[in-house]
Amino acid sequence: MSKIDLKRLTLTQLEEFLRQIGEPAYRARQIFKWIYKGQTQFEKMTDLPKTLIGKLNDHAYISMIDVYKKYESALDETVKYVFLLEDANLVESVKMKYSFGVTACISSQVGCSMGCAFCASTEGGMVRNLLWSEMADEVLAIEKDSGEKVSRVVVMGSGEPLLNYDELIQFLKVLNMSIAFNISFRRVTVSTCGIVPEIFRLADEGIPITLAVSLHAPNDEIRNCLMPINRRYPISQLLDACKYYIMKTKRRITFEYALISQVNDSDECAYELSNLLKDMLCHVNLIPLNPVEGKIYKRSTPSQVHRFEKILSSSGISTTVRRELGSDIQAACGQLRRSLLKR
Ligand code: SAH
Predict the structure, then answer these.
(1) Fold observed for domain 4-61
(2) 292 lines ligand 1 (CB under 6 A)
(3) Atom 12, ligand 1: which residue's CA is nearest?
(4) Which of 116, 119, 254, 289 to mutate to test the pocket of ligand 1 (most atoms within 8 A of CB)?
(5) Stretch 303-328: mean pLDDT, rounded?
(6) Beta-strand relationship, 188-192 and 90-98
(7) Quick one: 220 exposed, middle or buried, by C-beta within 10 A (0-12, 13-18, 19+)?
(8) Which of 50, 108, 129, 248 is the most exposed place for a label (fewest CB within 10 A)?
């Protein structure tokens, strides 16, 4: 009989496994706790009896993903990780340090199928979905490597999380469980390019995370050029889903808007965006575009970013400009995996 990786089991599945090896189910909680403290050796689980440790060693193991590459920013304390998965795929995560603690930016898929024109993750297409336990591993591996506790998670790495829906939900639940990561849902953000039916579904899930929506344009004409998903779910449908999400969760939505020179950064665009979002419980996060090699798009000038922000703010829309971290280590979405794959 081949050994089973306990890392891949939910608490319920772990209880079932213990029953199968003739042990009481309550041991599952103890083992689960150890797993999420980063422990991979049964001998070191000090509250387990020797006989159980023996049985666990006979039938099970706990996997850990390897750090394949690690880049530390010289400008700030951002660290970019490239992890090696069991099937030899690579996945990127980022650790960011703020005054309020450590935030982990997690990937939800290997590659991405969405094809946004300005994004590096999408080249080479989508390889596969990540398992919930692989997303949990990204967080655990960051904690293990840095020796710091992750206090916030943003699912803003490579991939479209709402196209990996079931694994995402299970991952969010484990983030929240007090015997696992114990991170409040309010400290978790999921970013989507706008998969409308799944936004409705998420709204009904009763999981009060922050939803971030990648808007990047004030109208369908521009958004169609930047984001192919807009042809399937145009802005009006997307905003209906967002309004439903706000109504059900009472949570403010964040709209992400990457400012691209001469494409979506005119004063006119800013006024159009203000109109579109007025009366919505939302926040706009302006992101200076990270230029991707081989793509035509350029970032807006700092003065245009400032103008754009002012127009939105003076229309009463809560707006911030995202502080850039790790710009010297290709910390933006998919940049690193892409350059490693090229090599
Ligand atoms: N698929 C999800 C999450 C991944 S991307 C989504 O689309 O939201 C996280 C954010 O980074 C998205 O808002 C995405 O549009 C943005 N992004 C991607 N490439 C970028 C780039 N080159 N510069 C700035 N933001 C970028």
Answers:
(1) DNA polymerase; domain 1 (1.10.150)
(2) yes
(3) 214
(4) 119
(5) 91
(6) unpaired
(7) middle
(8) 50
Domains of the chain, residue spans: 4-61, 66-342
Q: What is the 119 CA–ligand 1 centroid distance (Å)? A: 6
- What is the best residue among 214, 238, 253 to mutate for testing ligand 1's pocket, by most ligand atoms within 8 Å of CB? 214
Residues recognised as catalytic: 92, 333
User: Could you tell me the two tokens for 108?
Assistant: 């939800």
Distance (angstroms) between ligand 1 centre and the Cα of 297 equals: 14
Q: What is the pLDDT of residues 21-37, one digit of tens each?
A: 999 999 999 999 999 99
Topology classification of domain 66-342: TIM Barrel (3.20.20)
Joined tokens for residue 218 = 């004030």
Q: Which two tokens stand for residue 242?
A: 């967002």
Per-residue pLDDT of 193-209, as tens digits, reads: 999 999 999 999 999 99
For residue 234, give the H/E element and its range: none
Q: How far is the CA of 194 from the centre of ligand 1 (A)?
A: 12
Residue 206, C-beta contacts closer than 8 angstroms, at least 6 positions apart? none
